[in-house]
Amino acid sequence: MDPARDCVPGWGFLPPVSGYILLVPTKVPRKALNVARERKFLIGGVLVAVVVGALMVTGMRDAMVYYYTPSELATRLASDPSWHEVGVKVGAEVVPGSVSFDARNLDLRFDVRDQSVPDATFSVHYRGPVPDTFEEGREVVLEGRMLAAGTFEATTVLTKCGSRYEAVEDDLRAIGAPGPYYNGGDGDSYGEGYGDSEPTPSGS
Amino acid sequence: MTALGEVALWIALLLTIWGVGTAFIGARRGRGDLVLSSERSLHAIFLLVVLSAVMVVVAFLRNEFHYRYVAGYSNIELATHYKITALWAGHAGSLVFWVALLAFFASLVVRANRWKNRDLMPYVSATLHSVILFFLVVIIFTSNPFETLSFTPADGRGMNPQLQNFWMTAHPPTLYLGFTAFTIPFAFAIAALLSGRLDTRWITETRRWTLLAWFFLTIGIIMGMIWAYETLGWGGYWFWDPVENASVLPWLFGTAFLHSVMIQEKRGMLKSWNLFLVLGTFLLTIFATFLTRSGLIDSVHTFAQNLTISYVFLAYLTVLTIICTGLVWWRRDRLKSEHRLESFLSREAAFLLNNLLFVGAMFAIMWGTMFPLLTEGLLGQTIAVGPPFFDRVTIPIGLVLLALMGIGPVIAWRKASKRNLRRNFTLPTVMGLSVGLILWAAGVRHPYALLTFILGVFTLTTMGVEFWKGTRARARIEGEGAGPAFLHMMSRNRRRYGGYIVHIGLVIMFMGFAGSAYDVEEQAALEPGETMSVTSAWGHTFDLTYQATSAYPATNMTKLVASVRVQRNGRDVGILTAEQRAYRQRDETISVVGIRRAWNEDLYMIMAGIEDPNGVIQGTNPRPLVTFRVLVNPLVPWIWIGGILMAVGTLIAMWPRRGVPERPAPPRTVPVGKVPRRDERELAEIG
Q1: Which domain holds residue A143?
Q2: What span, in angstroms and rounded, lies between the C-alpha atoms of B670 and B415?
Q3: How far apart are CA B454 and CA B439, in angstroms?
């Protein structure tokens, strides 16, 4: 079929490539002149796109969560206290020495701080088990809201996935120094290993 | 010795440049010797990269902590098998592993196409070389596993405890196999575009490769789900985490392609659409690597570390997109459709709708995943979207796809007659609706769960009827018994019936997902001897009596194991244990759940908290209080059964036919020029 002779422009005002990307017929065979039918399919395709789009828009409305650092959240709350009512996500670092866990009631309390602004800290309360690989100094992502009293009531606490954890040279130097594990044998060292929560003896 | 690995990478890098050059010059000048040289360089690269990967493993086994990578992901007391899997525990090693797999497939392709597709092979070789080149550059210049530290630490930091698990050993390699295998269809697509041979041949030649890639990707994703279910300990298997989403994006495109390719084979339609899907799938595998490896999304505020890698991947993605678009635009004249859609009620239309939905789901998930990054870049404020967004979009799409799985395979091509529709869909509709009514009567009110079962039974019925009709027809014509007729029918039409089995597996899996609407959760703090009870959606009452917690030292951790006696409706069904494992090297604790599996529901127990763990370890506190979280998740086993069926179906669909040798291409398509003697002899034997 010679397109020049046998075709009439369909959505010819669009650049021809759109036919391949948007499934829009830029040329329609004159022989069939199925403009109506082509259009029907186009409408079908657009309908699918609209439905998916509508699902996305309504989904966004339910699921949008602002993501703050502790210092950003503090600024936001200072300027507009109504943010106490809004659920937010906060990425922060667990302050060493601040963790307390009541295993009977699954009541976890700890402080977090901003990694770039060490002064920006607040307390977190979470009802649930200690998340896996949760530890002091670890980065966590909290979801929940900041109560007016100044405590963050978390609904979820996520520990950052460790597979991207790159070794920091200082940590490795610290490992070079004998840790409690080498002195104390097996069981005693539980809870006081020589991970990155240990202060680094050799500094830099 | 292990430094040899880096040397091997450098030689491989030089070879990739050689391979791209010789392939192009060979194709242009008709120099068969150069093309052969390019193809053989892929074999050499495969060996070199494997050598390099082996050297990384050797470095792990020999505890060579002067390598930053080894020191970062292993330590002396790590179990030997995890020292091997440490190859893909971190970024640099997994890239080497990735390239090794890619080179493996490339080498296989060259081998499989010695006598055919000679017109496409130079470009295939060039494309494969260029992809390997990119990854080698990334490895050597940004994430080199052979990078050394200025000192040698006494021990390494150890492997992330969550990776010290069987499923994490198996999941990444399987996923990578899927990702890398998608490079082969991509290479053929580029070859078809460059050579201008855009008939259906490149697609039929790569069909099995696409299936292979899809097979591994599917299994890899399901293994990831099992891992999440068994180790993350929150009771679910899917979290809409960016890393999870990243693996699903190419899966969705690849699945769309596997369907639309049939339209091109049968009707000569959707040629450019298929190209778009194949090229897109590959781009999405690169995009997925970029997402998982750059850490851009997860750690929105701490990405400085891997910024270089992000830019490199973004640049590569951009260049690839431009090249692909340009090539399709250049060849647009040869991508004309041979037929047009005639009716909404046709198999073409059903497949087209399926494709639009897959692509729509892909874009929606991509949008949700990228949203934090987009808002950060455009508004300066990060806004994330949570699981509700993904559920809202994907569940309706999944339900429509569920129905299409029943409609697509049996509706007529071109235009379905009323008779065709009535004959094929009356029974399935009746079956689906009656199951819906039964479930409603039984008290199932959750709309999505109800719809899943109605549509699922509808689809299962159409599939069952298809199998039954095929078997009956064969039994009648060949005079065979039902059993042999069934098996022969399957082996004669592997692609079709394999596909049906994949569909059946997926339907069963969807029904398993629907069970999550009826998960039950209880939580209690128990002293030894105390009992908690939980009643499942099926009405079974589980009484769990906490007995004791004991400590078991292992090589690099201490296990705290809590044992619980389980009674189901008052009858003893055994002991269930859940653990907390305290790893020494990183001072991290992870929990290991206890799961009692039954055909209809999982009893899922998490040891959420323990009082005085140190006392238990030291033996001073033999009766600690433990807080348990117990879930009963209905139908979860069916997710895994569905997954196994999907894998089996894919294997059937791609299994080569026995006794049908690959037809050697006529000699004229073997590249002209100097062909080595041995090859000439083989050629003469084939005739």
Answers
A1: 66-161
A2: 43
A3: 9
Contact by Cβ (8 Å): A146, A140 = no
Q: What mean pLDDT do residues B393-421 have?
A: 88
B306 touches chain A (CB under 8 A): yes
Domains in chain B, start-ordered, CATH in brackets?
1-159 (1.20.120), 175-335+349-368 (no CATH), 401-517+645-654 (no CATH), 518-638 (2.60.98)
| Statement to judge: residues A71 and A35 lie in one domain | no
Q: Which residue of B has its CA nearest to A59?
A: B389
A135 with A104, same domain: the answer is yes
The answer on pLDDT for A160 being more than 80 is no
d(CA B483, CA A141): 56
Tell whether A195 is covered by a domain.
no
Please check whether residue B436 is in contact with residue B450, taking contact to mean a CB–CB distance below 8 angstroms.
Answer: yes
What is the count of structural domains for chain A? 2
Measured between alpha carbons, how far is B347 from B351 in angstroms, rounded to an integer? 6
Chain A positions touching B588 (Cβ under 8 A) are 132-133, 135, 195
| pLDDT tens per residue across span A50-71 | 888 888 888 888 778 888 888 8
Segment B316-329 shows an average pLDDT of 93
User: Are the beta carbons of B340 and A29 separated by less than 8 Å?
Assistant: yes
Question: Residues A145, A72: one domain?
Answer: yes
CA distance B346 to A90: 50
What whole-number distance in Å separates Cα of residue B387 and Cα of residue A89?
A: 13
Q: Are residues A78 and A153 in the same domain?
A: yes
Cβ distance of A132 and B584 shorter than 8 Å: no
Q: B73, B584, B606, B630: which to substitute to probe chain A, counting the most A Cβ within 10 Å?
A: B584
Determine how β-strand A64-68 pairs with β-strand A88-94: parallel
A93 and A155 within one domain: yes
Q: What is the pLDDT of residues B256-305, one digit of tens each?
A: 999 988 888 888 778 888 899 999 999 999 998 888 776 666 543 343 45
Closest listed residue to residue B190, CA positions, set B208, B206, B213: B206
